[in-house]
Write a structure and sequence with these properties.
Layout (H helix, E strand, L loop, with lengths): L20 E2 L6 E2 L1 H35 L5 H55 L5 H19 L4 E6 L8 E6 L10 E2 L2 E4 L4 E4 L7 E2 L1
Antiparallel strand pairs: 1-2, 3-4, 5-8, 6-7
Keywords: Coiled coil
């Protein structure tokens, strides 16, 4: 039984009903000339879409093998490191500045206490008015002052060791500094600066302070 021309498959390119080749990939019919053209287009698509992509991927793989440090994820790690260091440096700088402010007041208070002790020593030495108990007391005061200068109890550095934090946060706090004060006096003595500084009056009489 013969097919009428209207029932014959048409070429998907030119539309003529002389199609004799069917593409098994796209299921379209083509005439002889356009079947060859279709294969050429498929070859071009293969070269441009698949082979080119393969070559680019191979080049990327070779680069990662030779220089893994250029991997995009490595760049993320480097950026994380940079930001973390900047945050740590900022906290450290702020903590250092706070420490300098605190230690400045601390050393100033220690200076006042040392001046008071020096005046006592000078007066006692000039007047040859001291005994074993006085020497031991001055030594004890100086030892306390030395200890407080090196490891001040009024200044505390704390590391916040939070289990959820990778690096403990550092902080510094200031407490009241224990300054030696003078309350008991005998003779021409003037107590200043809230009991932390003493001066002998104009008279040359005997004076005692504790």
């Amino acid at each position: 039984m013969a097919f009428s021309s209207s029932n014959k498959p048409r070429c998907a390119t030119c539309g003529k009903n002389i199609g004799t080749f069917t593409c098994r990939g796209c299921s379209q019919d083509f005439c002889l000339s356009h079947a060859q053209e279709h294969r050429q287009l498929l070859g071009k698509k293969m070269d441009e879409d698949v082979i080119l992509m393969h070559d680019q991927l191979q080049q990327c793989l070779n680069q990662q093998v030779k220089q893994p440090s250029l991997h995009p994820l490595m760049k993320e790690i480097n950026e994380w490191e940079k930001q973390s260091i900047e945050k740590i440096q900022l906290v450290a700088q702020n903590t250092r500045q706070k420490f300098l402010d605190i230690i400045s007041k601390h050393t100033n208070n220690a200076k006042i206490a040392l001046i008071s002790i020096k005046e006592q020593l000078s007066r006692a030495r000039d007047e040859d008015d001291f005994f074993e108990a006085d020497i031991n007391e001055w030594k004890e005061k100086l030892e306390k002052l030395k200890t407080d200068l090196n490891t001040p109890k009024a200044i505390t550095i704390k590391l916040d060791d939070n289990m959820n934090s990778f690096i403990p946060k550092i902080s510094i706090s200031e407490g009241p500094m224990i300054i030696e004060t003078f309350e008991k006096i005998l003779g021409d003595i003037d107590i200043q600066d809230k009991g932390r500084l003493i001066t002998h009056g104009s008279s040359k009489g005997y004076a005692l302070v504790r």
